[in-house]
Design brief:
Shape: elongated
Number of strands: 2
Number of domains: 1
Order of helices and strands: HHHEEHHHHH
Helix content: over 70%
Radius of gyration: 23 Å
Structural class: mainly alpha
Number of helices: 8
Oligomer: single chain
Length: about 260
């Protein structure tokens, strides 16, 4: 009988690990939301959660069999996992925002395509920047950063002990604001030069209306944006590297409970 009680406690403790991993996978870049089939995400959460629980071994604590206490513990773990995945997912949202800013100045803000990952409609330039972000995410070992933060979080914030307070909310808010600024910085070179080109086209149309330059303004802006994006690609990739560094620092800080 005692052996069954120990087994029940072990299953409940492992379930908390799985709940945290499941919450993180929901927002995890490339795998989260609609990017992967539901059963695959559940299987991945079960494997990672079980491995993490097994690695901790004797440090596992039984949250108890009381339904209310157990339910609250599972809810806290899912919330903590969602925060971890959301912080990692902001990297891609930064790239999406940069592409949307450039698409707006190109005049392509209505030229949208359905994103197969989220099922949402977004500008074509956002799709391009999201593809670049996915490439850089794996080149920069972003997946290793995320997994190491997840595994480390079980020691920094043991399952069942997470609480959302000002000491966590303030860094999260600062990180979010920083990511918004990084998205603007990523798009700034192309965006500003496109504004200059638009002003020049408008000026030429005013002083030399016989040129009918406004009729060709849209192709000019699209071609200019593509050329400028290629020219400033090293700067864009450099900005994305900075975003990845910020994600790693803040993700490990949250995983440590700071």
């Amino acid at each position: 009988m005692e052996g069954f009680q120990e087994l029940d406690g072990l299953i409940r403790a492992t379930g908390l690990h799985v709940a945290r991993v499941m919450g993180m996978i929901w927002f995890l870049p490339v795998f989260g939301q609609g990017a992967a089939p539901r059963m695959q995400k559940i299987g991945l959460a079960l494997v990672l959660g079980t491995v993490a629980a097994t690695a901790r071994g004797p440090e596992l604590e039984d949250p108890g069999a009381e339904p209310l206490v157990l339910g609250l513990a599972v809810g806290r773990e899912i919330l903590f996992g969602l925060l971890l995945g959301w912080m990692a997912g902001l990297v891609f949202e930064t790239a999406r925002m940069a592409g949307a800013l450039i698409a707006t100045e190109m005049g392509l803000n209505l030229a949208n395509q359905v994103d197969p990952v989220t099922g949402m409609s977004q500008p074509l330039m956002s799709q391009l920047f999201m593809s670049l972000a996915a490439l850089m995410f794996f080149i920069s070992d972003g997946h290793e950063i995320v997994l190491s933060a997840l595994i480390g979080s079980f020691d920094g914030v043991p399952p069942g002990s997470f609480s959302l307070g000002p000491e966590l909310l303030d860094p999260l808010l600062a990180y979010t604001v920083g990511m918004i600024g990084a998205g603007v910085k990523m798009a700034a070179p192309v965006f500003i030069l496109l504004i200059v080109i638009t002003v020049c086209v408008g000026f030429l149309a005013k002083v030399a209306p016989q040129l009918h330059i406004l009729e060709a303004s849209w192709p000019i802006r699209i071609l200019s944006a593509l050329v400028l994006t290629v020219l400033f690609l090293p700067n864009i990739m450099g900005s994305f590297d900075s975003v990845m560094d910020a994600m790693g620092v803040n993700l490990h800080r949250l995983a440590a409970g700071r």
